[in-house]
Sequence to fold (215 residues):
Amino acid sequence: MTDVPSVRGAEVGRRIGVGLMYGLWRPRVLGAWRVPASGPVIFAVNHSHNIDGPMVMGVAPRPTHFLIKKEAFVGPLDPFLLGIGQLKVDRSTADRTAITQALGVLENGGVLGIFPEGTRGEGDFAALRAGLAYFAVRSGAPIVPVAVLGSSDRPGRLIKALPPLRSRVDVVFGDPFEAGDGSGRRTRRALDEATERIQKQLTAHLENARRLTGR
Fold:
């Protein structure tokens, strides 16, 4: 039996994230009230900065368990990330342990965080992997789109892929939506159709978030 990550650990991670994110940057959080107060939820987060995961973890209204590439679990970060309820995933294979743990988070009514693009890039949801659709259709959990809009295009960055310190970072939560068509089908075609639906919703949310924030 695979252990489900600790909710208490994720809450500790959230508190650490709050301190770090508000200490180093100036987060502006919009739409957090849209996140369901209870029950399983999947955060679908665009990914252009290394701080996207910690930022969402810190400002979200609920503790979040992110699927994070195993390459990030190096040295002391390995026990730390596991201790705060994060999930280690091997992206080179169908990681059964990570899949089971992620589904366990949702079955327990928790919040699962996913970067549906699979890796850090433009952060525009242009290329989605099927993993998000699989978890949404399999669990029936609603997806909440999350746009993290930082300052990557501005000078002043000390570290590449991080926004300048003390700069504003906007985190915009969207309306929850269902990925499936209501049939409960989990065929390859059903997942492909769900991925298309998800991509349209996430892209529309990102456009709205950019209009709202002026980013």
